Amino acid sequence: MSKLAIHGGNPVRSRSFSVWPRPTSELKDAIISTLENEGWGVGSTAITRFEEKFAEFHDAKYCISTSSGTTGLWVALKAAGVKAGDEVIVPPYTFIATASAVLMANAVPVFVDIDENTLNIDPALIEKAITEKTRAIMPVHISGNPADMDRILAIGSKYGVSIIEDACQAHGAEWNNTKVGALGLGGVFSFQTSKNMTAGEGGAIISNDEAFYETCFSYHNCGRTKSGEFYEHQFLGGNFRLSAMATSMLMPQIESIQDDMDRRDKNRKQLDEALSQIDGITINGAYDGATRQANHIYLARYDESRFNGIPREIFFKAMQAEGVFTYMGYTPIYREKLFVTDTDEYPWLKDYDFVSMKMPVTERIADKESIWLKQNHLLGSAEDIQDIIDAFTKVTQALHKHPELFKDE
Ligand SMILES: Cc1ncc(COP(=O)(O)O)c(C=O)c1O
């Protein structure tokens, strides 16, 4: 066995992985063309053109671009009729915005634990969390891996509750061969800089429901209506619009993401095949309906009991030294300080206790098991992926066979 890099050996890898975001000539040309020939903001054809194309790409009738995924989620919740004090069911293993958008809509995020096999909201636990205050369920397609939409949509219909998909990480993902996002009332994407399609910042809401779309339009555009006057405002909305420079940058990515997705699929398969052979590493699962994943972040799990009780953080340290950056990712979001709420500021939360909340699966995964690789790792060549596999193999073999090497870590 070659000497580990944390113990002075040669690292498996000393080069960086694929550059992200990619400043391609197509993006530069698109920005310059808009800069010189079209409106830069509200009313620009560069915005409507993108919205039409993104809707078509995502098997939806309507799309509204927004300033971010977070503002898109807020707009979608408001347009779904979420009112002060209503409850919205969300998973706790996600980016904070899934829950903070609910709070910003003066509503209550009700957390439902995740399924350890997919790290998505556990559909078997959702019904128990429904009350007469539940207005929406917001599954997150975590890492671009679709949540169990058949079961979630069935629960939504049974209780008359809207389904808003947080598809911020799921560009191009499919459920039963239909793109995610407009499977329920609507869904929201992010174009923030780490996402598989990016304009630096930005978001989009998609839907097949015309009334919902028109209400979203209003909330995202200062309460205006599509047919109303410029200074006519019907809802308490805001300026949550995306600029034409951003939508122009996104246009060529609707094409380029198709090749990226093929590459991500291939690389994911290579990684899954190799890592699933390692005792103590579990690759992430998917539901049968998940006919295509977006493969945003690569997720796996670490079982310290298979590695002589050596904690995951030591595995990370050894991997980092080998030149492959693995990390833990999310913590359970209800532990964030913002949930220690001041009831003067948030009176509608006074009967909810987030501080003593316990979600056993989320906590085990986040505290001990999750392994993340950033999305750019899945965009590399077969050789890049082989380096990742070699680093996993080298480190895990040492953890299995020579636990004594780690006693000082
Ligand atoms: C699951 C999820 N929800 C919401 C968001 C919020 O998107 P944004 O950063 O564009 O506001 C993100 C991304 O950052 C996300 O990953």
- Bound compounds, please? pyridoxal-5'-phosphate
Beta strands, count:
12
- Strand arrangement within the widest β-sheet reads 1-9-8-5-4-2-3
Q: What is the helix tally?
A: 11
> Which H/E pattern describes the elements?
HHEHEHEHEHEEEEEHHEEHHEH
Low-confidence stretches: none
Compute the CA-based radius of gyration. Answer: 22 Å
Within CATH, the superfamily of the largest domain carries the name Type I PLP-dependent aspartate aminotransferase-like (Major domain)
Shape: globular
- In whole angstroms, the N-to-C terminal distance is 19 Å
* Helix percentage range: 25-40%
- Binned strand content: 5-15%
The CATH architecture of the largest domain: 3-Layer(aba) Sandwich
Total number of distinct structural domains: 2
Tell me about the largest β-sheet.
7 strands, mixed
**CATH topology grouping of the largest domain:** Aspartate Aminotransferase, domain 2
Q: Briefly note the structural class of the backbone.
A: alpha/beta
- CATH C-level class of the largest domain is Alpha Beta
How confident overall, as mean pLDDT?
Answer: 97
